[in-house]
Specification:
- The chain is α/β, with parallel strands linked by helices.
- Helices cover 39% and strands 14% of the residues.
- It contains 13 helices and 9 strands.
- Helix 2 runs parallel beside helix 3, helix 4 packs across helix 5 and helix 6 packs parallel to helix 7.
Length: 339
């Protein structure tokens, strides 16, 4: 698959496999968050909710700091009891994933897991519900990045799974762009699942984080488009880069389970996409979002020709129920094309 002369691979030729055990072992923070701590989280003084959220999460992860000693009859004020889960609700690029990884690293436990929402649902799909519960039951912490309920099946699976894990003593930490009580709105008949959604949201203390998307602070907000010569020249600068037509990749993603997208980009230093076009099919768009998430987690640059990648989701899609998911992907695409 790799040309020794050019260092080019084609993702459309790859058929990655990933066992359930490998999926479980991979539930750790992405490489760029290997060293994420509360101390290294740089809160923006213009948005006090960021520092407030950090302090609350420190308490959740390691407990409250010792109270100052007072007089003989002084009593330590009773700390309010925290729920078994914390839920970071905020916009794109305000540091939610950094804080989630900081929680993971700070909790002093051997059995703890960190993964995106789709990775947990994929784990259930690969191992079955019972085996997944058996493997995760009794773990100290479950971190869930980009919590999103896109269909009724996911709603039922995740509410049951989290309920069983909380009952076994597992604590939960999650991030999303949607408060837990509003998950599912605009995407399916959420009213039919209100009991399950509300039961799940009752397990979380929602913590709001405001701010400006750090990924776009240094950019003009647009993904650059290359001509053919620039595209080939820039890909040649990497030791190994992928080179596929956009339509070819989109078609191939339909035949690879999203849980395996991370293996699809193994060993690649940059992603090349030719002839990008605007997507009109919802299923194709959602698969591309899942692919972009894996590329962004791996911190891979993207080089592209055709339509600018920040224009890949049409107005009709951005006006629909998946708006926040598409906007997050656009934010990550802009950052990746400038990397």
């Amino acid at each position: 698959m790799t040309s020794a002369a050019t260092g080019i691979v084609h993702l459309t030729e790859r058929q990655p496999q990933l066992s359930g055990e490998e999926m479980l072992a991979s539930l750790v923070p992405p490489p760029q968050f290997d060293d994420a701590t509360f101390e290294s989280y740089r809160s923006d003084p213009s948005f006090p909710s960021q520092e407030g959220a950090k302090q609350t999460l420190v308490t959740f992860a390691v407990g409250a700091p010792p109270a100052k000693r007072g007089g003989f009859f002084s009593r330590k004020p009773k700390e309010p009891e925290m729920k078994p889960g914390v839920y970071l609700d905020g916009g794109f690029g305000v540091g939610k994933t950094h804080l989630l990884a900081a929680i993971y690293h700070a909790v002093p436990a051997r059995r703890k897991y960190f993964g995106s929402f789709i990775e947990y649902t994929a784990l259930v799909g690969a191992l079955g519900y019972k085996q997944t519960v058996d493997l995760l039951r009794g773990s100290a912490l479950l971190c869930i990045d980009e919590f999103e309920l896109d269909d009724p099946g996911d709603t039922m699976v995740m509410t049951r799974l989290l309920g069983e894990l909380v009952a076994s003593g597992t604590r939960l930490a999650a991030t999303s762009n949607t408060p837990p009580s509003a998950l599912g709105e605009g995407r399916f008949a959420a009213q039919d699942f209100l009991r399950e959604i509300h039961a799940m949201s009752d397990r979380f203390e929602t913590i709001r984080i405001d701010g400006v998307d750090f990924r776009q602070r240094s950019f003009d907000g647009h993904a650059p488009v290359l001509d053919e010569g620039e595209y080939e020249q820039q890909l040649a600068a990497f030791r190994i880069a992928s080179d596929d037509t956009f339509d070819g990749l989109i078609s191939h993603l339909a035949h690879v389970h999203p849980s395996r997208y991370i293996r699809l980009i193994d060993g690649v230093e940059a992603i090349g996409l030719r002839d990008v076009r605007q997507l009109t099919d919802q299923s194709e768009a959602l698969r591309f979002v899942a692919f972009v998430d894996r590329v962004y987690d791996a911190q891979l640059p993207i080089r592209a020709t055709g339509t600018a990648l920040d224009q890949v989701f049409g107005e009709a899609m951005l006006a629909g129920g998946y708006r926040k998911k598409y906007l997050r992907a656009i934010s990550r695409l802009v950052a990746s094309t400038h990397a």
